[in-house]
Design goal:
Length: 191
């Protein structure tokens, strides 16, 4: 009974990760017209992460080599975009991390979920530190982007409440990047 509950929990978390990454990829795909190459790279990353997180059981033997090839191309694309700014270095690290996880999944045998496999502990640890820092930094930037939150008064007599703040495009981009960073962190933790 305990084994099936653990398996169900892993399956639910896998599908939640798939959903998170697919929604992020779809939002980035929607931004491609306005942002160009950077948004396209983020869309590929989001959909690739979603595909890698799908719990296929033993039917996913094709997944590691295909994703490895896709993310090798994405790494070359990020390297090309790197000449336009340092932000693209993160895309390069992400693409190479996905290549690494796909290779580890392929080396670890069939049926490995989330890129689980026989990875190199030192490289996995370095990537975990990078993405933990990225998520913490991204989260603090997202929180501080809206400015300070006004203190609440003692009750309804304190006056009218401010209108709700709607997320701007920049905040949505940050939230999308943060979501994909958390997805990367989750996949690396499962290695």
């Amino acid at each position: 009974m305990h084994g099936s509950a653990s398996s169900l929990s892993a399956s639910v978390s896998s599908w939640l990760l798939v959903l998170l990454c697919a929604v992020s990829g779809a939002y980035c795909l929607r931004r491609v017209r306005g942002w160009g190459g950077a948004a396209a790279g983020e869309a590929v990353m989001g959909f690739g992460m979603a595909l890698m997180a799908v719990p296929l059981g033993d039917g996913g033997a094709w997944r590691a080599p295909v994703l490895g090839a896709v993310f090798c191309v994405a790494a070359v694309h990020a390297l090309w975009l790197l000449r336009g700014g340092a932000h693209h270095a993160h895309h390069l690290v992400g693409s190479l991390a996905m290549v690494y996880m796909a290779a580890a999944a392929g080396a670890g045998g069939h049926g490995q979920a989330h890129g689980q496999g026989a990875g190199l502990p030192l490289l996995t640890g370095a990537l975990l530190l990078y993405y933990a820092g990225y998520v913490v930094l991204g989260g603090t930037q997202l929180i501080t982007a809206a400015g300070p939150v006004p203190a609440a008064g003692p009750g309804p007599a304190a006056g009218p409440r401010p209108a709700p703040v709607h997320a701007t495009s920049t905040e949505l981009v940050r939230a999308c990047r943060l979501a994909m960073g958390m997805g990367m962190l989750a996949m690396l933790l499962s290695m």
